[in-house]
Write a structure and sequence with these properties.
By secondary structure, the chain is mostly helical. Helix content is 55%, strand content 3%. Helix 1 packs across helix 2, helix 1 runs antiparallel to helix 14 and helix 2 packs across helix 11.
């Protein structure tokens, strides 16, 4: 059981609002029980990861990128570190499927619907750019569930695990931001789908970070949080 005066407010999200912590506590406890985040290590790693990743805030992915930032974020082989703003070029080459970020920059800069429909097209179960799936299934929740395939998997797992609360997240993905409980549950389901508990049982901060972040961004902060949580949770 996660307590409001314990790990969340003081350690996992020290800058967070106490009232908000109390608001989300019932959902954290409900879904932790359902998805077996129910040991000291699992709880510590889950809370530490979400604390760094989003501060437990439910959000929809913001696609209002400038021309430079969209190229840096989505356009280069090897990721954003390989974008050279001075030359407006990628030091290790552009991603071949993202060349329109340069050739049709004005179409995508500052236009979330166009941008996500393009950069998330034909991957993660999404259709092509014209389908609009990339925008429809953009990141949402406290860890940004992204892609039609993940929404479909979440939909199936939720309905199996919550037979008294059938939902259709594929038709209505905005439920992950309009209903606080689903923005939180989706993080537990994402962890369930990606063997997070196995990595947490191994007390492997590198693996849990990779699962949640897709890289090692903020590793030092995540490590600090998980260590403090382990010191304070029996």
């Amino acid at each position: 059981m996660i307590k409001p005066d314990g790990c969340i407010s003081k350690i996992a999200d020290p800058a967070g609002n106490r009232q908000y912590h109390e608001d989300i506590l019932p959902f954290l406890n409900k879904y932790a029980e359902i998805y077996k985040v129910n040991t000291r290590l699992r709880i510590c790693h889950f809370l530490a990861q979400i604390g760094t990743e989003s501060g437990f805030r439910v959000r929809s992915e913001d696609g209002h990128y400038s021309s430079i930032n969209m190229k840096r974020t989505f356009g280069c082989k090897g990721g954003s570190k390989n974008y050279d703003a001075g030359r407006d070029e990628c030091t290790h080459g552009r991603l071949s499927e993202r060349t329109k970020l340069w050739t049709e920059s004005s179409t995508y800069a500052g236009n979330p619907e166009q941008l996500f429909s393009y950069v998330y097209s034909s991957r993660m179960g999404n259709g092509d750019e014209d389908s609009g799936d990339g925008y429809k299934y953009r990141g949402r929740g406290i860890i940004q569930l992204t892609g039609k395939e993940n929404y479909e998997r979440y939909n199936k797992i939720h309905n199996l695990s919550n037979p008294d609360d059938k939902q259709d997240f594929v038709t209505n993905p905005d439920l992950l931001v309009t209903e606080l409980k689903y923005g939180i549950e989706s993080a537990f389901v994402y962890c369930h789908m990606n063997n997070f508990n196995v990595a947490a049982d191994q007390d492997d901060i590198f693996k849990t970070t990779q699962i949640i972040n897709g890289g090692q961004n903020g590793l030092a902060d995540r490590t600090t949080r998980v260590n403090k949580l382990k010191e304070n949770i029996n």
